[in-house]
Automatic annotation (TrEMBL):
InterPro entries: Cell_Wall_Dynamics_Protein, MGlyc_endo_b_GlcNAc-like_dom, SH3-like_bac-type. Pfam families: Glucosaminidase (PF01832), SH3_3 (PF08239). The lineage of its organism: Bacteria, Bacillati, Bacillota, Bacilli, Bacillales. Keywords: Signal. Coiled coil: none annotated. The keyword RNA-binding does not apply. Residues 1-22 form the signal peptide. Residues 343-354 have a biased composition (Pro residues). This is SH3 domain-containing protein. Residues 337-359 are annotated as: Disordered. The keyword Transferase does not apply. It comes from Geobacillus jurassicus.
Length: 773
């Protein structure tokens, strides 16, 4: 595979089509066409990616390729060819190219683009633009007009009129405490539409009527139709360039946009846990609305439990699937009369006790109680009830009887509970088995910790030992972030210490990612966010945690403390026996315990430290995804395992699809999970590939990452003192050389690699991790 050359990228932000992109030297003369006719200066718009040529015909050399939708100004004509000028910018500087284009790909916009008072501007909706370079405001629509002032790069202006590729704008700015407004004309080559994104509290937005969802926050491009009464989850709004309010929503795994006028905001409502009975077969949907994926059908007569309502939909769990059911399909459950005052759940029948019932020691096995469960004096449903164990309680029986009852001690009483699978499930749990709720595991993490930076630093330095660590001396960063957002700094430090192995993990050392943020199980390194600094990572996570897991109004809130998780032996969470951050944040049932242990190691728990501590209930907005990502080496080959959409630019319109079995080149992955790739000679973006299940979408054949710092690259597949030709850094991506049949070239335990400069060498496979294979 040949190494790709770097291409010049125009500030237009558009990707070019399969026609080649080239720029001739600035001093190359343009061939003048013979017998051409002068025409009035006329503005045209390109209807396709269009080559400007040195003469009036395809035999002439290409000067530059103009992207589709751009404007050019024509002054001469020869047959069906027009002599035009095209203005664009590179790295903030304006450039103009002159040459000939075919009239087949031009659409007339206006005549006399710079004729001053004689030209008629066209009114446009008031639109906000952002400058992509330092640009002059002029008194008229053309470079011949006087400059009023220069607008810096990155500022916003509002436009109300257009003449050719020029916009009449207003620019507001402050100078020495006073507000000024300047009005004039700016070339459209230096403007891009400005959409303002804002994070919002999590909410559902229900469609009022059949509603269109768009790929961008404006009424353009392909749409997805959603019937009325469907809830769309959102944490971000957009004020687009013409002032419309849109919500960024999730629908069937896709990020789409809905106009605010088309939906009604509905917040989730929590209530006391209530049982409901299905009065007919009821659909269980992935989100509140029948337009979402149907997860299962709940049969008529089934009893389910809910404690959350969103509009007319209840959140329930059925056969370990969490989803939403429409309230008209259920009614409140009324249990049958019972002689028992407490009316506990019925128990599995068993034969009367006899001397044949034997007991076997349980050796510390742990169980979760799934219903309110009777403790009886003997292992028999007819025996006296001693007490009732509430649903969700963790028990540690001492014995199991031959007729499937468990012997245990509960609140000082020794008795038996039925071992029926509907009532108890064997689990692994991080819950304190003595039922206590003291210590850091149950501390409200919105309180301030009496910890000093020196204590954090000493603990990290002691445990990092001689290993390189990015957390050395960073204790103050945790304290600063904790105070800034109202999060316990001791917890923040312990969390980072656990997830990053005291700052020595590969993610910490190479991506400054201390918390494993974004590191899906299927793609732990590639998917993980890349941060610009350790401080930036700590600040981002502190704000994110406060806005989500410690926010009572956020869907993932299960208590503002570490808590614990309880899993079945198959790894499925037992909801009624899980709580706190550990409920959703980590699949490890002991995660909360481990973080609490690190906290105690830095500062012994003293309840007096928090007896009168104030709980900081402020909730910051959720931070935007940090800029950054991963650039892959050239020559990384991937195969599509399913069809997915391709976009001309991030957040743009779908311009193509890649079919199953097609081969493409992997180029880049950003923190917001957009992937840049090359397919059939063109570059595209896609956010359709979900890295938590990447194998459904693609298989990457030859991407490796380095697992050790200073990895030697050798000219031959053997360890010698005279064959080292280079070194690779920890976490560096590397292209593995492919054979003609598409497999990685290998000799024994050695991989053949292609370096950035094109040289080929060998590295030991022990130090290479195959990514996304």
């Amino acid at each position: 595979m040949k190494k790709m050359k770097k291409a010049i990228v125009l500030s237009t932000g558009l990707l070019l089509a399969s026609t080649s992109f080239s720029v001739i030297p600035w001093n190359t003369p343009v061939v003048e066409a013979a017998s051409s006719l002068k025409i009035p200066r006329t503005v045209y718009q390109t209807t396709a990616n269009l080559n400007i040529r040195a003469g009036a015909g395809t035999k002439y050399k290409t000067v530059i390729t103009v992207p589709k939708g751009k404007t050019v100004i024509a002054t001469e004509k020869l047959g069906d060819w027009y002599k035009v000028s095209y203005t664009y910018s590179i790295k903030g500087k304006g450039h103009t190219k002159i040459g000939w284009v075919s009239g087949r790909y031009l659409k007339k916009v206006s005549s006399n683009p710079s004729a001053g008072a004689t030209a008629r501007p066209t009114a446009i909706p008031k639109t906000t633009y952002q400058t992509i370079a330092n640009v002059n405001i002029r008194t008229g629509a053309g470079t011949k007009y006087k400059t009023i002032m220069t607008v810096p790069k990155g500022k916003t202006v509002t436009a109300t009129e257009k003449l050719g590729n020029w916009y009449k704008v207003s620019y507001q700015y402050d100078w020495k405490g006073k507000r000024y407004v300047k009005t004039g004309w700016i070339s459209g080559s230096y403007l891009r539409e400005y959409d303002q994104y804002k994070n919002t509290s999590a909410a559902y937005y229900f469609t009022k009527t059949t509603t269109s969802l768009y790929g961008v926050p404006k009424r353009q491009g392909s749409t997805v139709k959603v019937a009325s009464g469907n809830g769309l989850y959102s944490t971000r709004m957009v004020i687009n360039s013409i002032g419309q309010i849109w919500y960024e929503v999730l629908f069937k795994g896709r990020k789409l946009y809905v106009l605010a006028d088309d939906v009604t905001k509905i917040m989730p409502q929590r209530f006391s846990e209530t049982k409901y009975e299905a009065i007919k077969d009821v659909g269980l949907y992935a989100a509140p609305g029948s337009a979402h994926d149907r997860l299962a059908t709940i049969p008529k007569g089934t009893v389910i439990t809910s404690a959350l309502r969103i509009g007319d939909w209840y959140e329930v769990v059925y056969k370990e699937k969490k989803g939403y059911i429409y309230m008209s399909g259920v009614t409140k459950y009324v249990p049958a009369p019972s002689n028992s005052p407490s009316n506990p759940a019925p128990e599995q029948p068993s034969p009367p006790p006899s001397t044949s019932v034997t007991e076997q020691e349980m050796l510390g096995r742990t169980f979760a109680v799934r219903v309110n469960l009777n403790v009886r004096k003997l292992p028999d449903t007819n025996a006296d009830i001693l007490t009732i164990i509430p649903k969700g309680t963790i028990i540690v029986p001492t014995h199991k009887t031959s007729n499937n009852w468990y012997k245990l001690q509960y609140k000082g009483r020794i008795g038996y509970v039925s071992g029926a699978s509907d009532y108890v499930t064997e689990v692994k749990t991080g819950a304190p088995l003595d039922g206590s709720r003291n210590g850091y595991q149950f501390l409200d993490l919105r309180t301030e910790a009496p910890i000093k930076a020196e204590q954090i630093n000493a603990y990290i330095a002691k445990n990092a030992g001689n290993r390189p660590s990015v957390l050395i001396g960073k204790g103050q960063a945790f304290i600063d972030a904790g105070k800034k957002y109202g999060v316990n700094a001791l917890y923040l430090a312990a969390h980072a210490i656990h997830e990053s192995a005291f700052g020595t993990s590969r993610l910490a050392l190479t991506k400054y990612n201390l918390f494993g943020y974004g590191a899906y199980d299927d793609a732990p390194f590639v998917a993980a966010y890349r941060f610009p600094s350790i401080e930036a990572c700590i600040d981002y996570i502190a704000r994110t945690i406060k806005a989500t897991y410690l926010n009572p109004n956020y869907p993932l809130f299960k208590g503002a403390y570490l808590g614990f998780r309880t899993n079945t032996l198959a790894g499925v969470r037992v909801d009624e026996s899980s709580e706190g951050m550990n409920f959703y944040y980590a699949s490890d049932p002991y995660w909360g315990q481990i973080i609490a242990r690190h906290m105690a190691n830095m500062l012994a728990y003293d309840p007096d430290d928090y007896a009168s501590a104030r709980i900081n209930e402020t909730v910051p907005s959720r931070p935007p995804i940090p800029q950054g990502g991963d650039i892959f080496p050239s020559g990384i080959v991937a195969v599509a395992n399913s069809e997915f959409s391709l976009y001309g630019e991030k957040g743009g319109e779908v311009v193509a699809k890649i079919s199953k079995g097609s081969t493409f080149m992997l180029l880049e992955k950003t923190n917001d999970y957009w992937i840049r790739l090359q397919y059939n000679g063109r570059q595209y973006w896609t956010n359709a590939i979900k890295l938590y299940d990447y194998a459904h979408y693609m298989t990457v054949q030859n991407l490796g990452s380095v697992a050790a710092d200073g990895l030697n690259v050798r000219s031959t597949p053997q360890i010698r003192n005279d064959n080292i030709i280079g070194q690779l850094k920890l976490g560096q991506y590397v292209q593995l050389k492919l054979t003609s049949n598409g497999t990685v070239e290998q000799q024994g335990p050695w991989y053949k690699v292609v370096l950035d400069d094109g040289r080929v060498g060998w590295v030991h496979s022990q130090y290479i991790i195959r990514e996304l294979k």
